[in-house]
Amino acid sequence: MKVFKVFFIVALSLVAACPVFAKDVDSRISQVTVYPDSALITRVGTVELAVGAQEISFADIVPDIDEDSLKVSGKGTASVKIMGARVKKEFLQEAAGTHVKELEQQIQAAADELRKIGDAKSVAISKKQLLDAVLSFSSDQLPEDMATKMPQAKELGDLLSFLDASYKDYYAVLQGLDVKERDVRKQLDVLQRELAQISRSQKMKRSIAVDVEATRAGSLTLEVTYLVRGASWYPVYEARTHFDKSRVELVGFGVVRQKTGEDWEDVEVTLSTAKPTVSGHMPELSSWILRPYQPPQSASRRKGIFSSKAMLVAEDQAMDKEELMEVAGALAPAEEEAKMEYAAVEEKGVSIVYKISKKASIKADGSEERLPVLAQDLDAKFQYSAYPKASAFAYLTARVTNQKDLQLLPGRMNVFLEGDFVGVSQLAAIAPGEEFDLYLGIDENVKVKKEEIERKVDDVLLGGIPAPNRKIMIVFKTTIENYKNKDITFELFDSVPVSEDERIKVRVERVTPEPKEKDYKDKKGVWRWELKLDPRAKKEVSYTTIIDYPRSLRVEGL
């Protein structure tokens, strides 16, 4: 019995003394969730495990990561407990990374090109010096030759032609070299600044160490997710208008760019409107206090106040850090099959998520990559709108209804009319199932013109005596002309004068035709007409305004 106890104690001591195995894992980036100002990276690696406590290392993590966002999960044939994960940092003498090496090679190539340009300039300058010598010799020799013998006209012409062509070639070559040198120096400056920016964050070797304990040997696939800066995305749309078919094809793209220091090769991409780098904690409430003015205090008296404020700021920052860890940990991208041609769209709390249906590769050089997000073919009711007081153009709009399960974000919209690019517009935030207007730019085939056809001022009584009041009558006429080969619907907006002072009297008379709506969207004096025009037809809208106010009063807007 004593022998068994001794054996058991020795066995326990041997187990306790067993070292923790360290194992590197080959990993790759499999998924990326891009936010408007950052990205959540998912890195995957598979490793074979023996029984016991082990440390698995994801080496060569290039970007500076938010350690609070680090999250680990895994599955496999091995029976494993994940004990925790941490980021290891080691300072390097030189920056590492594939993209850094590419930048260094490009910088070296640009420097070599500058040397070639410098050599070419030296050769060109040597040729010019030879030309200058020929010109100097000719200037000295010609007078001497002319004293004894008149040179032939052909000889003089050949010499002048030679000098003229040679100098022109020299200056053309020099100008071309100057332009090339300027462009190469600009390129070199951009490359050097990008290298400096990346090197500042890469002069440190980073790795993610995951501590596990395996009770059964086997394989384990680990996923680590972490938040990085240097990535962003924004939406861009294309409205492809088919006027004759009364259809609009609305296509949306997510424009992604990243400068994290490592390329994303063949990864699953999800675009999210969430902002995990912004604190989810509402600022502290404060009262609006009015007090008598007090002069600024001296620096010595402010010291104590600043110290207490600094403590409050530090507490807020600590709170934000904890909340950021909770938010980032909950934002791991969920695998989901695309529900539409371009991307699967879902709402997560207050954010919108677009999961791109195909894998993508995005370079870390800051270049923009357009990823297809959505496409919908919409029934459109086309109409024209104009506000001639502010613009002399007629604007084409299409009234459409968004899909019931699709949220549209605000963004730039490129407009194509029957296949031709006609301009750029903006798309506002549109809710699922919402009816909205697509602004498709101007149409030169529909003309609108507002003009003042009569103005009369009455401020004199009989006998030349000035009247106490001044009365102004103005007649306006707006003409709309349809030069298209089909009927159109036209919305005309105009602003009639509105008085905000009881001394100023305003009347609007002889309105032809009557507007469809007055005080449009609660805007005082903004009237809206609805008109239908046949092909090649013309319509007119006219009204008369009469403004009566005291002669001594200066009125703005007249």
UniProtKB/TrEMBL annotation:
Keyword annotations of the record: Coiled coil, Signal
Pfam families: DUF4139 (PF13598), DUF4140 (PF13600)
Ranges where the DUF4139 domain occurs: 222-551
Signal peptide positions (record): 1-22
Keyword DNA-binding appears in the UniProt entry: no
Coiled-coil features, chain-numbered ranges: 93-120, 174-201
Domain of life according to the entry: Bacteria
Domain DUF4140 intervals: 32-131
NCBIfam families: mucoidy inhibitor MuiA family protein
Listed name of the protein: Expressed DUF4139 protein, secreted
Organism: Velamenicoccus archaeovorus
